[in-house]
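DATA SHEET
Item: assembly model
Revision: 1
Owner: S.N.
Input lines:
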Amino acid sequence: MKIQKSFSDRLLTTIAYLFMGLFAVICLYPLILTLSVSLSSEKNVAIHGYSILPQGFSLNTYIYIFAHSGKKILRSYGITIFVTAVGTLGALLITTMISFAISVKTLKYRNVIAFLCNFTIIFSAGLIPWYIVCINYYHLRNSILALILPSIFSVWNMFLLRTYFSYIPPSLYEAAKIDGANYFKIYYKIALPLCKTGILTVGLMYALQYWNDWWNSLMFINDKKLFPLQYYLYNILSNVNAISSGLVPSGAAANIALPAETVKMAVTIITIGPIIFLYPFVQKFFINGIMTGAVKE
Amino acid sequence: MIMRAKDGRIKKKNGLLKEINDNKILYLMCLPALVVLLLFCYIPFTGIWMAFTDYNVVDGIFGSKFVGLDNFRYFFIGNSMARRVTYNTLIINIFCIIFGLIIPISIAIFFNEVKGKLFKKVTQSAMFFPYFLSWVVVGAIVYGFFSTDVGMVNKVRETLGLDTISWYATPKYWKPIIIFASVWKWSGYNSIIYMAAMAGFDASLFEAAEIDGANKFQRILYLTLPMLKPTAVVLVLLSVGRIFYGDFGMIYGIVGNNASLADAVTVIDTYVYSSMKTLGFSYSTAIGLYQSIMGLILVTISNKFAKKINDGEGLF
């Protein structure tokens, strides 16, 4: 009995190791593949295809990209960084304020406000009315605001933050009020410093959303000068997809300059570069933030 | 009677104004967010009217000719796209929900069973990483695997002496590829939510079970899984509520506007986008409205279920 039990336990542990190891490899493999192709020489890739180790290691692709479209990429980088920075700060300000306000239990209409927010995730007008309103009334076409405003407030993030704020004991607020502080002062002197983890987590979520966004540019931007990084990459890839589908007549395909394989992968790496760089620092912290916020009450 | 009702209302109004005046600062702090919602969620509701008209830019939303349900008729009967795009949306989402349940829970459970600290750290970092990538980047990676000429998969097939497949021209492979990509991207993130739930479990229960001679399999089967059920139910119901919504970014990022794959992968969201360009605003507004109403119905149903299971606490 004893032996059997430990055998089944050991079997389970083995399965656990295998599963975790395998899934981790599946998650990382494509990335290493992308990186290694971007570091290969174009000729070798054309002959041997993609492979996990760089073939004929060279930095030529990166040098080529920065020599030929360096300006465009740097510009797109600039747009993405600007949108991410301004968007994240604005979104954090707006979101922390409303989440704090409706976490105050004495606020009578906080449930009404929460419902107004909730309703927008339950029912929406759909893409087209949203698009028409943005284009015709707010004139967002080819405006940098189009990349920031539509996603500046996320109801999900608000609810996550409200959970954090609601952990703060109301007695702290009462004490501050007796000392003459108003709620705005309480917000930035007491509530914000106490919810650092939550705010940074939500801030990272917003930053990630802005960095990875190409939907707003697909809808509103056709001026190449305003292309953010992701949309720049999307355009390179969608040309390639159209040609691979075989629907573009080969004559026409010959006229479209196909970005070389290594270039595509190098641009991909350039796009996710900052994320790879920051990942080790934010990862653990992000996991803790989500774990704390996910545990309700 | 009437006077009293009037009085009552005035009193109530005073109450409202008084409340707003008393908590001016708090209500002002809510204002920016509410303005954003007003601009991007509530004002667009007026545009729903377009679904019942033949919209043209000159006459505007309310000046265009009223056509009743013609747009819906065309969608459901005329070109019979309704069935295809709804089917694609539901199938892709159903499989994403199933795998999105099994794999993250497995990760969370197995994570507890492995011991090596470094191993834990490395695997968790690896699994969480895809969450940080945009669908465009995922699209680039998918291309690296399935490109006809240089793709990894075809090169492997060549080495094994098999025929190469022109993946990007063969629709039948793409539902599985998209489902796999979705599971790949989200599993690490979702597993964290289950780990958070498991962190709150009462350890003494597990110790007691161990003393009583339950092995690890039994402990997982009779303790961990039942205790994870509430979390799983909430997450599944949340996704069921959104089952009529396809992930536009995912489909478009991976497949783009590749016309030869459209039959297999066009979901409601991508169809709204593409028909906006070809079939006009009114028609695509009608499809969007169909989607929103189905979404509303499903959210209501899943909320009811959640309340039943969670002792009165709904999803929203």
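QC remark: Chain B touches chain A through 109 residues (CB under 8 Å).
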